[in-house]
Structure formats: structure tokens, C-alpha cells
Specification:
With 147 residues, the chain is α+β, with helices and mostly antiparallel strands. It has helices spanning 2-8, 23-29, 41-61, 98-110, 119-122, and strands at residues 31-34, 75-81, 86-93, 127-135, 141-143. It has a single domain (2-143), classed as Fusion Protein Consisting Of Minor Coat Protein, Glycine Rich Linker, Tola, And A His Tag, Chain: A, Domain 2. A hairpin with a 4-residue loop joins strand 2 and strand 3 (86-93). Mean pLDDT is 81; it is low at 21-26.
């Protein structure tokens, strides 16, 4: 260590500041879309806990939609912040009935205060967008989209 200090004595190292990133790039880097293709185990476990909560709470409350009433299984995007609060609920593919689409949004908000991100997930992401197909057969099932 002392040899290295001797060699560096009198040498000035300029401080280099990284170039500023636009705010949009920073936000996008801290956001992830969980559509079923992710291989990140802690992220997948968190998404699975949200899925289980929604499915579990739909059964006792009685999903009011029978499979005959739903024309198309909706594709729903639920964006959650790191503290477990809802950022946004978007219907990417509609059921074909505006009242049912609104009921899906309301159901997500009624179950709000989802668990906060685990520390290892929160260190990397500020928002997780969970995209799932909602099937109303024998209760509610959230399924990964088939491609």
C-alpha cells in the first residue's frame, strides 16, 4: 500500500461526474413489466403473492361474473409502487362490457394495500407492472398471457 501511495504522490486525479440522465430514463430503469417471462426469483415470488391475494379475495367475496357473462377474458395491467400502493390499473384487452371492466378496476382498488416490495426487489425497482389474463371460471384465476 505504501508503494502505491508513493507512486501516486503529486498526481492529481480529476473528479469525473457522470453525465446527467434525463428523468424519463431514470424512471424507466426503475420500472419492470412482469408478464410471466421474468426469471428473477424474488420478483416472481412477489408477483405470485399479489396474484394469490387477488384470487383468494375474489372467492369469498363471490366473483359476480359467470363465464357466460364475460365475452373475452380481460388482460389487466396492475402497476404497484414499492410501498404496495397502486400506481395504475389499466385494461389492456377489454371484456367487451364497460361495466365489467370498471368492476375489475374497482376490485383491484378494494384489495389495495398490497405488501411492500421485499428489500432485494425494492433496491432495483420503484414500480412493478403486473400483466395477467383474468379468467372468471369457478372464481377468479390470473394467468400468464399465452404468446
Amino acid at each position: 500500500g505504501s508503494r502505491a501511495r508513493e507512486l501516486l504522490r503529486g498526481v492529481t486525479i480529476p473528479s469525473v461526474t457522470p453525465p446527467a440522465q434525463p428523468a424519463a430514463m431514470t424512471l424507466e430503469a426503475r420500472r419492470v413489466v412482469a408478464d410471466g417471462a421474468e426469471r428473477d426469483v424474488p420478483l416472481r415470488l412477489y408477483v405470485d403473492s399479489v396474484r394469490q391475494k387477488l384470487e383468494r379475495n375474489a372467492v369469498p367475496g363471490g366473483a359476480r361474473f359467470s363465464p357466460r357473462e364475460v365475452r373475452i377474458d380481460p388482460l389487466v395491467s396492475v402497476s404497484l409502487r414499492s410501498d404496495g400502493s397502486i400506481d395504475d390499473v389499466t385494461i389492456l384487452r377489454s371484456t367487451g362490457r364497460p361495466d365489467m371492466d370498471e368492476a375489475v378496476r374497482r376490485f383491484v382498488r378494494l384489495n389495495a394495500r398490497y405488501s411492500a416490495f421485499p428489500p432485494n426487489v425494492a433496491a432495483r425497482f420503484d414500480v412493478i407492472e403486473i400483466r395477467r389474463v383474468w379468467a372468471f371460471a369457478d372464481g377468479l384465476k390470473l394467468m400468464e398471457e399465452m404468446r
